[in-house]
Amino acid sequence: xxxxxxxxxxxxxxxxxxxxxxxxxxxxxxxxxxxxxxxxxxxxxxxxxxxxxxxxxxxxxxxxxxxxxxxxxxxxxxxxxxxxxxxxxxxxxxxxxxxxxxxxxxxxxxxxxxxxxxxxxxxxxxxxxxxxxxxxxxxxxxxxxxxxxxxxxxxxxxxxxxxxxxxxxxxxxxxxxxxxxxxxxxxxxxxxxxxxxxxxxxxxxxxxxxxxxxxxxxxxxxxxxxxxxxxxxxxxxxxxxxxxxxxxxxxxxxxxxxxxxxxxxxxxxxxxxxxxxxxxxxxxxxxxxxxxxxxxx
Length: 297
Hints:
Structural class: alpha/beta
Strand order of the largest sheet: 1-2-4-3-5-6-7-8
Distance between the termini: 33 Å
């Protein structure tokens, strides 16, 4: 899988298994005269979906490597991390994220996360505010927000059928054609912005042994919840970026969520002509926004 220049692959052992992550501990970011111990930490967390991994933020986080300690994990069940053969639950990821942060960070950090993972981070921040300095979130959602189930479709119902679910994953999701189709039709606002490296990175992650378990748990809706029930309890300073053409969760959901807690959610930035993952579709714009938001939170 893609690994940016100057980043090393490391791992942390959690109760669910080994989590692989990337950090800027190599040249040109570090040498014998420099270190990252006194730098603030930025943690980048990818969203969920067939082929998701830390690659999702790989066009963004190197831009901060000179000034921050960077940590970008593949969450459990995704990328190069372990893939336990199990049906994943919300509690699994709340625990896995908390344990990972506790093991890799010794001071409050800024977490930059997307989609359902961003929704989960809000819940972790509510339960453990001492772990966080601030949050910068791209389209945070629980996917059942305000009682609207974003994954309630015929495909989710079919993929809930045992045996058939794994067949559909291997033949319809974890293929080059399936991934390109999803990226172009559902994740990006502009299909020409999907290039070969993105497809190949998602495909490699999707074809890891047992990768179907986490992906199917996501598609079935096992990891969905109503974020509106929780978000009012958030106290961590937060900025939200939302692609105006995000199909999975529309921008009206984002505005409603932000309005529930204006004390914590200090910034809501809508991006025109962008889909679910501005960090891949318009990485330079995303970098500029993060730089702008960091001193404001």
